[in-house]
């Protein structure tokens, strides 16, 4: 069942799956997962046990949080899902992304590669189209996401995105600020109390 508008029970985390990631990023991913779990929120992610994806899920699990992984069948061998967390096997990347979206009330973006970029750009596009109002928070250690933010600002300067696009997300550079940022964005968005019909995404 999709989550109800206005609730903040589940947080989806997008991030990289490369095991070659900076150890500092891996450690931070673990702590972000733990912070989400300690806040009493279910941790939703792409289901793999590798890279930042695996580190963040392990952090949530070790903090005794609820964890839901969603992974396509063809990626199970490559991304090595954990045996001790709830995992849903789906048939395609599209189904994975839709289920991650539907099962989550907010989104956190950690450092990642092209797959993470694809996921977050699609999510922000849906937001611009009025298909959802769920909070989006970037964890931005060492300015990792600054080049992406500059690209977003460039589209605004060139009048290809509206000025208020800059309000579509929030960026924090400390792990301990991630959950408060999610909560503060949720309060702001719920103040307008307009919740679009996400059935149009299917």
Automatic annotation (TrEMBL):
Enzyme Commission number(s) from the entry: 3.2.2.n1
GO BP term (any one): cytokinin biosynthetic process
Enzyme class: hydrolase
Catalytic activity, as annotated: AMP + H2O = D-ribose 5-phosphate + adenine
Gene Ontology molecular functions: AMP nucleosidase activity
Any single Pfam family the record assigns to this protein: Lysine_decarbox
Keywords assigned: Cytokinin biosynthesis, Hydrolase
Keyword Hydrolase: yes
InterPro entries attached to this UniProt entry: LOG, LOG_fam
GO CC term (a single one): cytosol
PANTHER family, A to Z: LOG FAMILY PROTEIN YJL055W
Family statement: Belongs to the LOG family.
Protein name: Cytokinin riboside 5'-monophosphate phosphoribohydrolase
């Amino acid at each position: 069942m999709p989550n109800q508008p206005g609730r903040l029970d589940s947080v989806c985390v997008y991030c990289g799956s490369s095991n070659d990631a900076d150890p500092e990023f891996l450690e931070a991913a673990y702590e972000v997962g733990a912070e989400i779990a300690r806040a009493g929120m279910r941790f939703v992610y792409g289901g793999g046990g590798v890279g930042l994806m695996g580190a963040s899920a392990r952090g949530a699990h070790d903090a005794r949080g609820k964890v839901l992984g969603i992974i396509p069948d063809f990626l199970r061998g490559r991304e090595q899902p954990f045996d001790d967390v709830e995992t849903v096997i789906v048939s395609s990347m599209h189904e994975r992304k839709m289920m991650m979206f539907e099962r989550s009330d907010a989104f956190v973006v950690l450092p990642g590669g092209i797959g993470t970029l694809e996921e977050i750009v699609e999510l922000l596009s849906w937001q611009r189209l009025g298909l959802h109002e769920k909070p989006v928070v970037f964890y931005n250690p060492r300015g990792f996401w600054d080049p992406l933010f500059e690209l977003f600002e460039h589209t605004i300067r060139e009048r290809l995105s509206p000025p208020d696009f800059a309000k579509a997300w929030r960026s924090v550079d400390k792990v301990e600020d991630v959950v408060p940022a999610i909560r503060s964005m949720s309060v702001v968005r719920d103040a307008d109390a307009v919740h679009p019909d996400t059935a149009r995404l299917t």
